[in-house]
Queue: 3 jobs
Job 1
Amino acid sequence: MEVLLLLLLFSLNHLTLGFLFPTVNHQKNIAITNNRHDKLKRKCTLYTAHSSSSIRSMISNSHVYNNFDMTHHENNENNIQRRSSLSLYAATADQNTQCSKATLRSRGISLPTLTKRELLDLASGQRVQKQNRSGRAGHGLVVVDVKASAEEVFNTLTQFDKYVERIPTVRSSCIYSQTASKCVAEFRVSRFSLRFNVIHSVYHDEKLIKFQLDDSRRNMVMRKAEGFWYVQTPSDRPDGYTRIWLSAEVIASMFVPNMIVDYAAGRALPRATKWLQPYFANEDYEF
């Protein structure tokens, strides 16, 4: 009974204190609420700042991506235009080469196709030489690039009276007749003083000079000797370069010793073209 009375008194005291002094609990609750509100406000502020930064970053990245896409697109267009220009240039150069070969074929001339290795040799300043021999017959080809215009090279090659001064293998010459399209001359060649009576046919438009033995005059050394000079503007070299072709086919007479045949087959054409590069480079040369 006493216990029950004590519990009842304790409960009444607790209610009375709560009723008489409500401010203490209320202020505590307000403090807790304010604390939670401050935490929530800080979180919102941080979230808002983070969101703004993210948005700004996204916008900035968007500009970067757009600029990258535009630049990439422009580069692609430039590459396409460049490839188109190169393809057009290559197609035009190939078309010009085909037209030149077709024109030369109408003159009885057939140019061989140069390999990539031979083109590299020409670009490095070397000459391309090809020679075939069968008994007393032989064929030779020499190709060389020079730093000069095609007009200058062609005009130089058509000055037949200057061959003695320019071509080391030519020891003397006698011009019988000469016009704009034809030259009839006698040349003495090499240390053996071999005499050749030759007719040169000049084709200015094609920059081609064909030569052959003059059948109306005596030729004791060769039964056949014919060939050509051809001046070409190469599409695989920079502007200002000219390609010179010299081709010759010979059949030696039965009266000619083998040592002379060997000389004609192995040294005549190379020596006939060695003067070209130093001459157009204005350099002194001796052979």
Job 2
Amino acid sequence: MTLSLSVLAGTLSNVYDEALRQLRRICLALPEVTERLSHGSPAFFVREKKTLLMLLDDHHGDGRLAIWCPAPEGVQATLVDAEPHRFFRPPYVGVHGWLGVRLDVEVDWNEIAGIVEDAYRIVAPKTLVRQLATGRQDTSGQDTSGQGT
């Protein structure tokens, strides 16, 4: 069966829309994070200055829907080596340890939330990092702190 271009475009649009919706939910829940376009793509910033994450769709024809974000030291190399079909070293910022994460493959949004929180801990001032809750909520909305309610 061959998909028409309009059906394929609609499917890809749905994947992009869902990714952006999930990223907004994750990023905007963090203290003082805002969203705006940067270089024509949605991006999230801490205190409107420090880049937390960028969502890129087919950046310079690379064929990927992905996020780019800072990662703790050594994480980029470890993840890219372990799962190169999901993780990559993004151009420009990869030399500074940023991680590329594909969103056009099966996505675990709890894992993405953890990656985003790690990025936040790198770029946010210590006063904001201290505001993070000790138990992050998973995508089902259930408390994962182990402390209950």
Job 3
Amino acid sequence: MNVGEERRALERWENEGGRAAVVQQPHLEPSSMILEKASRMSSVIPVGRTPGLGAVGAHSPPAMRGWFSRYFNLRPRTRPRQRLVRFMCGEGLSLGCSPTLADIEDLARKAGLRSLVNLNTEGEPGEVMSPNVEASWAHAFELRHERASFAADLPRVEDVDRFLRALVSVPRPVFVHSQQGRRAAAMILVYLGLEQRISGTAAVQAAKGLGVICTLDSLRRFAESEVDRRIAVPPDNHRTKVGGVPRTHKSYYSRA
């Protein structure tokens, strides 16, 4: 029974005796009158299909349910996906938080990236995606994927060496990321300090100028000390850095 049929049935009930029953029993209380009316309506209109808030359910026609949802604004809404924020740190180099699968697809197909460098470890609490799974999807979208995993609370010199080797081995544009972006910011801080041959403190300021801030104090101090330690040896000439190794050579970034 659709809405029109229900309305006509209700009019038929009122014309045939509904009103007469109310007139003949004026002593009834208002609540009793409502119950009397409801009992008479149930014999004309099935209870499960009466119009109203509770009636819009499995027994209601699809058109009626759609109208009800639009009228009361009950149609489910989907949240717009938050876009991945990337901080540009130089030509073909950017960093940020760990991407989702949709972000990886956008990086490959829309942003034109060629590589990902992941600093996360396996099984981190709250991880967006396992590094192994991310590597599989990166290869599916024809991206080069490298891992330089280390724990944020216990960085080591070897972790910096591994990151710098991974960074110079992948084609650019490259996106460096960690779960919250703090490890990525610290490693990029080291990279900027070595690339520009500036102190750790100056590297922090240079990174700030690019919008990159490592919010974990212990990790930032570690990155500063690594920059100061690695530029302690003066370059031989303007074409070389740190003990005479050319800047384009992979071993330059791994020297202590």
